[in-house]
Amino acid sequence: MLSQVPRSRMYVAAAVAAVVLVSVAVVLIVRNPSGPANAGSDSTVAAAPTSTATPSEKESESSDSEESEPGKPSGDNRTVGLQAEATSAPGVTARLARIDSVEATASLPGEIGGPALAITVKVKNQTGKKLDLALGVVNAYYGSERTPAVSVASDGEVPFPASVADGESAKGVYVFQIPEEARPVRVELDLGNGADVVVFKGRPQR
Prior knowledge:
The protein is α+β, with helices and mostly antiparallel strands. Helices cover 23% and strands 33% of the residues. The chain is built from three helices and twelve strands. Strands 1-12-11-6-7 form a five-stranded mixed β-sheet, with no helix packed on it. Strands 2-3-4-10-8 form a five-stranded antiparallel β-sheet, with no helix packed on it. It is elongated and about 115 Å long.
């Protein structure tokens, strides 16, 4: 006949079994988390940063890509030699008829006297109608750095007339203070009214 197991030993065994079950449950929960905390973790991963640049970054990139040389000639569509003829618009041609070395005398504020070039620009109109020259602008630059030449308007400058008839030509004389040693020279002509900017570039004969 089997002897009866004391009740105290049964209680101890039951307690040990309960502890084991609790330990197993804790391990399972740690390995497979669930509930609101886990949901929050998933949403954070989905909201990873994108590579889209912020407005400040875009502004920085834009400013870096842009040229920062105020006062220098803008990009031109047509560049020719100093003695060549250029077309600024259909039926409109221009050339530098003369480049004379002169000694300019400054008489207006901002002007600089000294060695200068008197540049005669000739425009021919073959458009079939009158050509407006009121907006015509001539600028000059010199040296490898394209330094803007100062206009000496008070010493011999003769601007373009307001217009030129079809089949006719018109001239303008523009004086710029340019050092004798400056090479090369760049003359920019803009007749306005949608015409292309033309550039004459080279080393003038002094």
